[in-house]
Design goal:
Elements: H1 6-13, E1 38-40, H2 42-47, E2 54-57, H3 82-85, E3 96-97
Antiparallel strand pairs: 1-2, 2-3
The structure holds zinc ion (2 copies).
One zinc ion is lined by residues 20, 22-23, 25, 31, 52-53, 98.
C-alpha cells in the first residue's frame, strides 16, 4: 500500500471528512451491525450532531432495489434511509447509534 500524500492526510485529520468517534471509520461510509439487522445511513451519520454512525433497522428503514444488488447483499440495499431519499427530516428517535451496537468486523 502506498503512503498517504499530504493532501489526503490533511483531509483525514481536518473537518472535511468526519470520523465516527466509536469505530473510527468515516461517517459517510455504510456500516452494518454484526447480525445484519441494522445498517448505517451515510447521510444521517454525517448530519447528526453526535459524531457517530446512525443506524436504522434494515430493511424496514431502507428498502431494497435490484439495481443495487451485490454478491454480499443480493437483495440490493438502498444506501440512504427512506427519509433521506425522500429528502425528509430523518426521524432520529428511531436511530441506533454506533456506541450501542456490535459492528460487523
Ligand atoms: Zn461508527
Ligand atoms: Zn438517513
Amino acid at each position: 500500500m502506498r503512503a498517504l500524500g499530504v493532501v489526503e492526510l490533511s483531509l483525514i485529520q481536518g473537518e472535511g471528512l468526519m470520523i465516527c468517534e466509536i469505530c473510527k471509520k468515516p461517517l459517510n461510509r455504510t456500516e452494518w451491525s454484526a447480525d445484519g439487522t441494522l445498517k448505517s445511513c451515510p447521510n444521517c451519520s454525517a448530519h447528526s450532531n453526535k459524531k457517530q454512525h446512525v443506524y436504522y433497522h434494515y430493511p424496514e428503514k431502507f428498502g431494497t432495489t435490484p439495481m443495487r444488488s451485490t454478491p454480499k447483499h443480493p437483495e440490493g440495499p438502498q444506501s440512504y434511509c427512506s427519509s433521506c431519499r425522500a429528502e425528509d427530516i430523518p426521524d432520529l428517535s428511531q436511530a441506533v447509534y454506533c456506541e450501542a451496537i456490535d459492528i460487523k468486523k
